[in-house]
Structures are given as C-alpha cells and as structure tokens.
Amino acid sequence: MAVAQGDHRRARVAVGLAPPVEQWFAKAARDLPWRRVRTAYGTLVSEAMCQQTQVARAAPAWTAFMRAFPTIQALAEASEGSVLEAWRGLGYYRRARSLHAAAAEICELHGGMVPSKREALLALPGIGPYCAGAIGSIAFGKREPIVDGNVARVLMRVHGRNVDGASPAGSKWLWARAKEYVDGAKGPGIANEGLMELGATICTPVGAACARCPLRKVCVATKQGSQDRIPLPRKRAVRQVLHTHVIVARVAGHTALVRRGEQGLWAGMLFPPTVESPRAISKRAVALKFGVAQSELGGGAAFEFMTSHRAVRFRVWCASDSASRLLKKSQGSEWTWHSKAAVARASLSSAMCKVFESAKTAARARRGRVVLKAQ
Ligand code: SF4
Questions:
Q1: Which DSSP string do the residues of 110-146 spell out, in sequence order?
Q2: How many domains does the chain have?
Q3: Ligand 1, CB within 6 Å, residue ranges
Q4: Residue 111's domain is classified under what CATH number?
C-alpha cells in the first residue's frame, strides 16, 4: 500500500515537472547556433558533438562543421580526412567517423532525410538511446525520453533519490522518470532540452542554485536539503597505465605513419608507429622491435597523456636518417610516408601534436649539439 501511495505521489509530481521547465527554458535558453534554425541534420550534428564535449567548445565547431558540410549529402560524400579535420579540437574522433557513416546510411536508406522513428535512429552508427531520444524529441517533437548526466542529476534530486545510473535497476528507474516527465510536457523537445539546460546551468554537479530553479516548489532534495548528497560522488576508476613508445622516422621530408586498429585509443587514425604495453618498455626493446640499433634512436622525450580511463606514458624516439631509410625498406606497406602538410592535416589528436612537438624539440637540440661540436 505504501508503495502504491508513493507511486501516486511520484506520478503527480512527474506530471507537473515539465511545464515550469518549458516556461523557464523559453526565457533562459542559452543562445547556441543549432538553436537558431532547427533542422534534423543540425540536431544530429550538435548531439554527436555535445556527447563528450562541453557546449562552449562544441558551439564554434558546429558552426564551422555546418559551413564545411551544409547538407547531409555533402557530409556523406566528403572524404573521411576532411570530416576528421573539421572535427579537430573536439576529441573522441570515433564520433566523427560514426557521424560520417550515419550520413552515408541516411542518404542510402532514407533518401537523405534523418529518420524520425526511434528504431531507425537506433540502427544508425553511433546513435544510442540518448541520441535517438534527443533527435526524436528535439527535431521531430516526439514524446521520447532522454537521460544524460544532466538529466539524471535533476531527476534524482527532484525525486530525492540516489540511484546508480550505471546499474540496470538505476538506469531503468531513470528512463521511467524521464518518460513520465516528457509525457507531461506540452512540447517534448523544449521540455527535454530545458531539462538538460537546467542540469547544465542551474542544478549543476558542484552546486544547485535552487533559488533560481523552476522546480524548487516540487523538488524533494531542496526540501530535504539533500542536494549536495544527490547524486553520491562516484568512485573514481583507477586509470590504467599504458606505456607507449613512438618512433618518428623521416625520409626526404616524409614521415612514417600507421593506421591504428578499429578499437581502442585513437581508433582508425593515422599515428606514428608505436610499441604499447601495460608494462614499462626499454629503449632496447623498441630498437629490437623495429630492427634498428639503439644508438640510431635519439630524443626519448617523455610525457603523460590522460584519457578518461588511461594514463598513457609516451616516450618519443627520433630515428636517425640512416635508420629511417632502413625502416622505409624493412617495414611493409602498413607504414605510409607523408609530407609535412599531410602530417599537419593528420595531426588531429593533441597526443599526436605533442609527439611531433617533442620530436621537433629533440631535432633542435640535436642540431644545437652538432653546431657546438663543430665550434
Ligand atoms: S530545486 Fe535545486 S536541487 Fe531541485 S532541481 Fe532545482 S536546482 Fe536541483
């Protein structure tokens, strides 16, 4: 009986949540480029960009991307290199490749129109339940729920409940609340976007500005004063260490690059040849792996690069001219050799930029030593 009463109360609260958020959002929405003229294609691009990138960084990138590929057909027909180039600075390049593949599929299977049905959206590369809900509701006005980090936090606080969104039970609870919420909305797209905006600007992880919140009258957390305890802080996953030794080899101004595998870090991207291991790697092992003498590898600059799950410990080795020529002969077609301009175009990840920066510094130092010796 107690459960049934709780359910009734929650349902009553849920029905009343969307209208105040919609009214608030009509006045408080940030001016973002994809909000000025709404299109399904523009929404697809903005949702892909905002998944793991802050809105402030995504906004200028979205404008430039839409200028480069104004239609879904233009995106589908573009080369992968130009799409990755337009994604520069946003990181997580897998999203750009998925978006490119999704555009091709939309042109092939849906006549170049972003589909509105959830099942069709979910079948596209890179589109999960959140993205399908966002596109369905924002671009097509469908009564589709969405749950992302911002929405989850607001829903938990409003209902005064801590759940683990990563667990099946927690995820089920959140999606059920998001569905109740959007079912009570006048405009599902505005309501969903408003809830995300509320989580990003008012009900933030570091503090809830309840006095300015349109949900303060019904919010359980603000009544209980439990905002700071909902959601519970997540235990930080221990980052795995990955030792990555990189060889920078150049012949006649052309640098060796290798296409990385489809899984893992910098998946599918061109990168200088590497040796990777969870254990420390010696210079000797690197030289052995590539069949060159240790003395032919200069530099050795070290830097650490953090990703969400890994601490990547780089060492950058510069092959001498003779070792580079040897490598060009001994390594197969897997290694491709690129001009300075092509390397600059391919240097999309900040890790790769740092690798080449280290190689440049090492080359400068080597030249300095040669000059000193000559004196
Ligand atoms: S009242 Fe406070 S805790 Fe509740 S949703 Fe609004 S900002 Fe968050």
A1: STTS---SHHHHHTSTT--HHHHHHIIIIIH------
A2: 3
A3: 154, 157-158, 202-203, 208-210, 213, 215-216, 219, 221-222, 227
A4: 1.10.340.30
**287-300 pLDDT per residue, tens:** 999 999 999 999 99
Q: Residue 13 domain-assigned?
A: no
Give the DSSP H/E element, type plus range, for residue 224. helix 220-224
Q: Is the pLDDT of residue 260 over 50?
A: yes
Q: Are 274 and 264 in contact (CB under 8 A)?
A: no
What atom of ligand 1 comes closest to residue 208's alpha carbon? 7
The answer, yes or no, to whether residue 246 has pLDDT greater than 80, is yes
Residue 306 lies in a domain: yes
Q: Tokens 């060492």 identify what position?
A: 315
Share of the chain above pLDDT 90, in %: 78
The predicted structure's pLDDT at residue 10: 61
Rounded to whole angstroms, how far apart are CA atoms 268 and 94?
Answer: 8
Residue 6 has pLDDT above 80, yes or no: no
Q: Are residues 133 and 150 in the same domain?
A: no
pTM: 0.82
Distance CA 244, CA 23 (A): 52
d(CA 257, CA 249): 9
**Strand, helix or coil at 63?**
helix
Angstrom distance (rounded) from CA 120 to CA 136? 10
Contact 231, 167 (CB under 8 A): no
pLDDT digits (tens, 9 = 90+) for 99-124: 999 999 999 999 999 999 999 999 99
Q: Specify whether the CB–CB gap between 19 and 186 falls below 8 A.
A: yes
pLDDT tens readout for residues 123-132: 999 999 999 9
Q: Please tell me the predicted confidence (pLDDT) of residue 346.
A: 82
Strands 240-248 and 310-319: parallel
CA of 185 to the centre of ligand 1 (A): 19
Query: What pLDDT is stored for residue 4 in this prediction?
Result: 52
Residue nearest to atom 2 of ligand 1 (CA): 210
Does the pLDDT value for residue 236 go beyond 80? Answer: no
- Catalytically active residues are 47
Domain extent at residue 164 = 146-235
Helix (H, G, I), strand (E, B) or coil at 311: strand
